[in-house]
Amino acid sequence: MGLVETGALVAQAAAAGVGAAAFNVITLEHAEAIVTGAEAAGRPVILQISQNAVRWHGGRIRPVAAAAAAVAEEADVAVSLHLDHVEDRALLEQAADAGFSSVMFDAGALPHDRNIALTADAAARAHGAGMWVEAELGHVGGKPDQPASAHAAGVRTDPGEAADYVGATGVDALAVAVGSSHAMTTRSARLDEGLIERLRAAVTVPLVLHGSSGVPDDELRRAVAAGIVKVNVGTALNIAMTGAVRAALAGDASMVDPRKYLGPARDAIADTVRTLLGVVSAPAGAERRSDA
Ligand code: G3H
Ligand code: ZN
After folding, report:
1. 235 Cα–ligand 1 center, Å
2. pLDDT tens across 85-111, in order?
3. Residue 154: its pLDDT value, please?
4. Which of 39, 160, 165, 168 is buried deepest, with most CB atoms within 10 A?
5. From CA 90, how far away is CA 97, in angstroms rounded?
6. In 10 A of CB 154, how many CB atoms?
7. Could you tell which of 47, 84, 105, 233 is best to mutate to test the pocket of ligand 1, judged by most ligand atoms within 8 Å of the CB?
8. Nearest to 136 by CA among 161, 106, 170
9. 64/198 Cα distance (integer angstroms)
10. Index of the ligand 1 atom closest to the CA of residue 233
11. Of the bound ligands, which one is closest to the alpha carbon of residue 211?
């Protein structure tokens, strides 16, 4: 299958009533492992590179994007390339040329009116470059000088405000705050399924869940059944990767060849991806409430 566009991949998942998982890429090994895991699961996948990851690569978007795109092109499953959590409009301007078919513009920490104005402008520019655009909305009802990022724990997205936001900005997908939180190392988040259902009814575009590493499998299944389409996962891969590196190094103090510890790390990421793709790709109705 190889490299496809994120918009088409997400639309196909939405039509099938399943989730489209997006995994964060930091190193080449992440990209290789994510695609290996997706091939093992027989599922499409989104490779997403964050603005923070680009900064970690010295602010250069092209090398890491080119590596991920090359891995995608040779995949046996459909793989797309997404630029995640972009706040810098200069970086946004480089995305299409660097091979990205989609971008998440992140103005969620700004006052609401500023969020709308900047996101509408970013969406128009990104659409002009042929990209699919995701943005996020957390709590909008607060005072303008007290914005609440959708990434913060306890924040919730209001369905009416979400509908207005999508209409005002013209985005193609909406990241919503429904109980997850970024960078959790325990899978203990509880999602508000009722709110997800109300958001799905209120907005016309696919819903995106960020911070999915902290969400247990059953919660993820129910979130997809309730209306989440794009499921973003980052930390879970790094837990798997770092655990494997730590174990390999602890097992042999004389080890110096990075392939000896990055190999197990890549395998661990691939296994995590395969498992999570099985969870979010279950058709609606396959979810069950194990804690009922
Ligand atoms: O945009 C990326 C995701 O929200 C990743 O969140 O690292 O908590 O899984 P996570
Ligand atoms: Zn995120």
Report:
1. 6
2. 999 999 999 999 999 999 999 998 888
3. 76
4. 165
5. 12
6. 10
7. 233
8. 106
9. 38
10. 9
11. 1
Q: Which pLDDT belongs to residue 144? A: 38
Between the CA of 212 and the centroid of ligand 2 the distance, in Å, is 8
CA–CA separation, 2 vs 18, rounded Å? 20
Q: Tell me the pLDDT tens digit for each residue of 183-237.
A: 999 999 999 999 999 999 999 999 999 999 999 999 999 999 999 999 999 999 9
Average pLDDT over residues 132-157: 66
Ligand 1 within 6 A of 183 CB?
yes
Burial 21-52 (b: 16+ CB within 10 A, else e): bbbbbbbbbbbbbbbbbbbbbebbbbbbbbbe
- The fold adopted by the segment(s) 2-280 is TIM Barrel (3.20.20)
Mean pLDDT for the stretch of residues 2-12: 98
Helix (H, G, I), strand (E, B) or coil at 205: coil
- For the Cβ of 151 lying below 6 angstroms from any atom of ligand 1, the answer is no
CB of 221 closer than 6 A to ligand 1? no
Q: Which ligand is nearest to the CA of 215?
A: 1
| Active-site residue list | 84
Check pocket membership of 213 for ligand 1, CB cut-off 6 A: yes
> Is 233 near ligand 1, meaning CB less than 6 Å away?
yes
